[in-house]
Amino acid sequence: MGVYLVSVGAEEWFDDEEDGWGEVASALNTELRRRSLPPYENVPAETAFVPGSGQAFEEKLTPPMTGFLALCETHLSQAEAETLCGWTVLVPFALDEAIVLPIDAGYGEPTVVVGAPRALPLAEKLAAAIDLPPETPVTCDSLDLTMWFRSEGAKHLGSNRPGPWSDDLDRAFYVALFLRAAQHSIRRGCPIVCT
Fold first, then answer.
1. Sign of CA dihedral 142, 8, 133, 159
2. What is the DSSP-derived secondary structure letter of residue 136?
3. What are phi and psi of 59, to 5 degrees?
């Protein structure tokens, strides 16, 4: 159990069954048309899972967010922080503002859709602020970030090359998580959902 950020392929995105995202996809396209924008229909198919391929995204939100939220308060406006991490669905195309859909995302909250091209520079700003190291995993096919930050990978690098990033590994995890989610969504052209 827990909260995950996962990429969604076309089959699940357009699926109207209980576990699918078809209702969200349909409502989003209705709202895009209302705004004179093209519908989001070019969602890539799900590919076979190959570890390290970068074709899928799956990470679990496990550590406390206290340090990350404090970092956001220091370097981002409230609106920017909501763009970066207040979404339910991240899409690979630009949106001028978040789209709030009247679909329950859980806990009585509406579904919030944000464009990855708006979230990415905000994540990059935080990554620069803590000097996130280039060794941070780039692909996140199967909890790669979660495992790297929870295992000896991040701790070992932090002891050999300390910096602002290693002062709070939970904070660095969330910076990397939202950075990699936006990068993956844009690179693969797929939605990432909070589930």
1. negative
2. S
3. -140, 150
- Distance in angstroms (rounded) separating the CA atoms of residues 90 and 54: 17
- Partnered with residue 100 across adjacent β-strands are 112
* Dihedral, CA of residue 34, residue 36, residue 37 and residue 40, to nearest 10: 40
- Strand, helix or coil for residue 167: helix
The answer to whether the beta carbons of residues 156 and 90 sit under 8 Å apart is no
- What are the CA-CA distances from residue 170 to residues 111, 167, 174, 176, 195 (Å)? 26, 9, 7, 10, 20
> What is the rounded CA–CA span in Å between residue 124 and residue 178?
9
| pTM (2 d.p.) | 0.95
> Is the dihedral angle over the CA atoms 70, 68, 121, 11 positive or is it negative?
negative
- pLDDT tens per residue, the chain (195 residues)? 579 999 999 999 999 987 889 999 999 999 999 999 999 999 999 877 777 788 899 999 989 999 999 999 999 999 999 999 999 999 999 999 999 999 999 878 999 999 999 999 999 999 999 999 999 999 899 899 999 999 888 999 999 999 999 999 999 999 999 999 999 999 999 999 999
